[in-house]
Amino acid sequence: MPFQRFVESGRVAYVSDGPYKGKLVAIVDIIDQNRVLVDGPASNVPRSEMRLNELHLTKFRIRFPYTGSTRVVRKAWEAANINDLWKETMWARKVEAKKKRLELSDFDRFKLRKARQIRNKIRTVAFYRLKKKVKKVKVTGASKKVEKK
Q1: Domain named KOW: which ranges (predicted)?
Q2: 11-103 has which fold?
Q3: How many alpha carbons lie under 13 Å from residue 54 in its C-beta half-sphere?
Q4: Above 70 in pLDDT, residue 67?
Q5: Backbone angles phi, psi at 90, to 5 degrees
Q6: Residues 109, 80: contact at Cβ < 8 Å?
Q7: In which band, very low, low, confident or very high, does the pLDDT at 99 lie, cut at 50, 70 and 90?
Q8: Taking every pair of C-alpha atoms in the chain, what is the biggest distance, in angstroms?
């Protein structure tokens, strides 16, 4: 089956646009092919309708009765530990890193650039040292083979 993430009741989604951008919500009900009813009890997103093009579906799904109340959704959310599971994903780490980069000042960006330059110099020196060592081993190994014949 090519698709793994379906728009379904209980699917956890990441809001990519609008006033609640960057928050997690659970799909409670499907209104039509473009809109869904969402609720974000843990992320302070009130129950409201959202367009599907404002959401990115995650791999998480929580189980609760069809069109469950906010209290029911909150209980299912906490039982499934969605917040902890989300923090462990690479997606959440990338979002966090992007937020940190946006908050850097000019001086922080300068320090980061200098630190990268130093790291790259150390890495390059180590690489060429290893390359030279391998070349020397190949040359001495080739001459030994010639001598044996």
Answers
A1: 10-39
A2: SH3 type barrels. (2.30.30)
A3: 20
A4: yes
A5: -65, -35
A6: no
A7: very high
A8: 85
